[in-house]
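Exercise: predict the fold of this chain.
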Amino acid sequence: MAASRAFQPVDSSVTPRYAEIATFMRAARAEIAPPLEIALAGVPLDLGASYRSGARQGPAGVREASRLIRQVNPTTNVAPYRLCNIADVGDAPTHPLSVERSVDLIQQFFERIHAAGAWPISIGGDHTVPLPILRAIAKDRPLGLIQIDSHADTFDVFMGTKCNHATFVRRAVEEGLLDPKRIIQIGLRGTRYGDDDIVFGHEAGIRMVSMDEYEQLGRAAVIDEIRRVVGDAETYVTIDIDGLDPKDAPGTGVPEPGGIGMRDMQMILRALTGLKVVGADICEVVPSLDPTGITCINAANLMFELTCLAAVARSGKLTAEA
């Protein structure tokens, strides 16, 4: 038996999945304080979305769907709860009528997580969400970024504003939170507003992998390219759920056909075990747009994969000590 951790998840082989209050992946509920090492958090903001709203319900939907998640990764054998103290710390506060006020509140919430020495894994919320998180955890050095997305999110101004779900990458680069040479975007395929939609990314040196290129290279080569770009330094992962094909994630505000399959996404993340992943998020999950619930189920499974990556990076181990 591995050494006991401070926070233990509910054991679904003992307590039925439908019982007790839903937390992310049945993790213990805890305050933001030591000995917390990985903080699972919700960020219910969708005021930065420009088309279909509802991502504010993403955290609640994924918590409920994540009752399905067990405790050991079937491919890597990583058991994150044995490696780190992991808990659900609740939702970041947001203002229901102000994206600017919400961004400030979210940043303050994640600053508390960072000050407590914990690494964040979160469920949004629209894709404005990574910016305040990065402002909280990357003030002292720029991080690398692995971005799964059908859109580049590198606009300067979108719909007359500079802080929304289409601008977070550009803002984070401009503010020195991300190293553009260590950013890789995978799955880009959405139709564009004009000829200059992705000019900033190219000029900044961001590695942009369209779905066309993804198919040409193949999954294994893309994994190699991810490792080449981000290297061994600290890296953040953000998954816009619209990076997945709509057959696997119909519940999202801006679905784009022809995306990454769920199986590929699982195996990409598993192949990145050992990277220095110091935080991650999944955004743009809109439960109300998916009556089947598969979007939330897939987001919950990807959250587990991200938690496995962070647990290995945080502990420096693949398995717990006996």
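Check your answer against the key: DSSP finds ten helices and nine strands in the chain.
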